[in-house]
Amino acid sequence: MAVMAGGRGGWFGPAFGLRLLLASVLQVVSAFGAEFSSEKCREVGFSSNLLCSSCDLLGQFNLLLLDSNCRGCCQEEAQFETKKYVRGSDPVLKLLDDNGNIAEELSILKWNTDSVEEFLSEKLERI
């Protein structure tokens, strides 16, 4: 086994330096792209609830040196779609005559269920 590792074509052969360099580069790239822990962010002076839009403002104050640390600690803002809803119409009782035309229209906005039931039992004919 020792001969294989040290011999030609083994792990420590001519390509060992290249493998070591590649492993080092991959480790640096993965560490660079990773987010910082909340402890690391506090150590470099950033809050754990920092928004990434704040990092965009660093250039205005000539603080671009802090940009990589800022980006490692920031949280993306959620992009929610905002919709406005028109208020619904108030509840209304429409009483019809024998021909199906509206005879009476009553707002029952502040009526409770018992009041509606009582009113309908008085006004409607039982079949």
TrEMBL record:
Signal peptide residue numbers: 1-31
Protein purpose: May be involved in redox reactions associated with the formation of disulfide bonds. May contribute to the quality control of protein folding in the endoplasmic reticulum. May regulate protein folding by enhancing the catalytic activity of UGGT1/UGCGL1 and UGGT2/UGCGL2.
Q: Name one GO molecular function term.
A: oxidoreductase activity
Q: Where does the Selenoprotein F/M domain lie?
A: 84-124
Q: Name one Pfam family in it.
A: Sep15_SelM
Tell me the protein's name.
Selenoprotein F
GO CC terms in record: endoplasmic reticulum lumen
Assembly and interaction partners? Forms a tight complex with UGGT1/UGCGL1. Interacts with UGGT2/UGCGL2. Interacts with RDH11.
- Where does the protein end up? Endoplasmic reticulum lumen
Where is this protein primarily located? Answer: endoplasmic reticulum
Q: Which UniProt keywords apply?
A: Endoplasmic reticulum, Selenocysteine, Signal
Q: Does the keyword Coiled coil apply?
A: no
Concerning its family, UniProt says: Belongs to the selenoprotein M/F family.
Q: Do you know which InterPro entries this protein is assigned to?
A: Sep15/SelM_sf, Sep15_SelM, Sep15_SelM_dom, Thioredoxin-like_sf
